[in-house]
Amino acid sequence: MMQPLFVLDNDSPANLQQQLIQKLIQAIQNGHFACGSKMPSTRKLAEQLGIARNTVVNAYEQLIDEGYLISKERSGIYVAEDLYEQHAQNASHKKPNQENQQHEQNWQQRINKLRLDKLASPYPHNWQQYPFPFIDGQFDPSLFPVQQWRECSKLSLNVNEIKTWASDSGHDDDALLAEEIRTKVLPRRGIYANPDEILVTLGSQHGLYLLTKLLLNNQTLITVEEPGYPGIRQLAHQAYSPIHHAEVDEHGIIPEQIPQHTDLLYVTPSHQMPTAVTMPQQRREALIAKANDDDFIIVEDDYASESNFMSSPHPAIKSLDSQGRVIYVSSFSKVLAPGLRLGFMVGPAPLIKQARQLRTLISRHPPANNQRVMGLFLSLGYYDQALRKLNQEMAVRWQELREALNHYLSTHIVTSRTMGGSTCWIEGPSQLDGQQFAAEAAKHGVLIEPVQRFFASTRNNGNGGNNGAPQNYFRLGVSSIPTDKIREGIELLAQIMRQWQDDSSGTDTARSTNQQNWGKRLKGEQLRDFASRVEFIGQTVFGDPYRIRLYADGSMAGWEGYQDERQDKGQWWLEGDRWFRQWKDWSYGETLGFEIYIQKNRINWVRDGKRVDSAFYLLHSNEPATETSS
User: Fold this and answer.
1) Residue ranges of the HTH gntR-type domain (predicted)?
2) Which end of the chain, N or C, is surrounded by fewer C-beta atoms within 10 Å?
3) Does 429 have pLDDT greater than 80?
């Protein structure tokens, strides 16, 4: 019966004729239609599949042209008799005898021993099947500019365009793409370069590979960030280059930790990989000054440079370079799609010339048709549109993540303070095992990223964890999860963390839920008097300051941020000895009730027997409130 062999999908991106051709080839290759056998008539096959006869006729004609089928006059359509003759001969050969097996090659001995760590993906291959994928660097189809990319792809296929990119251009890049990078992309980062100072790459990793091949050996010291991007460590290991790991703080790599005899410094200043902190302008200037004084080269990987939501991006370190010692590396993949694999690097002309020659030995050049499509995409303004759309969506997701973390995990975690990006670096309770926590969360459909791979295997600073890496950290990303899933996912993650804490019976001394540490509970008129004239001063999980002021009429106002960027208003009231509040926007506008405890100049909010937040407090007179005065 034919029906089981051919099930065509009307929703498939391939049309019915293309699907039919694929199915017929598979049936021939699988032996359902043997060589020399007669094919069903076009009318019969069309009736069985419920498709137009012309579709079958066209499919048969194409397979005849390709040699799969032959047409016999007044007889019909047949599978070509000699289609797999050579294949049949090969299949008939006897298995190698024992003597031949003894002479099989030992490839483990022949292959050069490279210093490669395992490059396993931090995410399961079926991550899309998880309802809450808080991961980074994966493709989100909803953000890809399908229509604009399709238009540019079609434009690249007209006759004149094909003549431009189809011939072998040697080691040259697509002229349109290179010029668009030079005149549109780089000036946004404060960089102005000549054409011979730009090289198109197969993404940032390709650029880093070329640079480490050209600049590193067993005598050159490379300094990298700790924690930092694992890929650069891998490349340095291949070059047998000594590595120094300089720690990062809330502003990125610490200049004082860079050895004076460093030859090459690798940094990710826009959004440090993996903590996502942004390097301020003052530190960028300090880095370039140190490079000038100590005579080392800086490789600036401008990872996620334009995804700042709190302020405008800082100019690239390369823009401060007056001595030609900064090499700039970037990629289009972060904005468009990881599978695009197109990037570029900017450096002194002699270096770019050597990198171009080395690239020629590896891949000649990135696919010219893809370069042309990207060049058209830039020239028509579509890249700017895609970037704006991406940043708008990431800003919404990022803010939603901030709100959810503040609401559900405020007393459990601390995060690095970032200016944007698509990830958050999370410090959990001190006894948390990030890898075990990630495994447990995955069982509930929540994907988070353990962070051990970002730390050097030789690191040993006494913080515990695998290979000396701190174990109570993990990372959350929002580039692959819809906005409407973020709150639900974080709420579930908070439940898992609370359950983990209950099961482990361990508490973080800094976030203890022991009632003895909460102080004195306020009740009745004492609670009402306190609530009528108090102001709370604290920090969000992102380290941003906030103030909340309560008034005697039951109203309250809140300010968050260093310049009070986010504000809200709400109401408070008492029910018995519990204090209730409801914001207009903050905390999703939910009504929540708390028991209030004070200890010296701190207030603790307690709900369901657990402390959920803590802050300093002041009276409206700005005099510190005390237990006795309250």
Assistant:
1) 14-82
2) N
3) yes
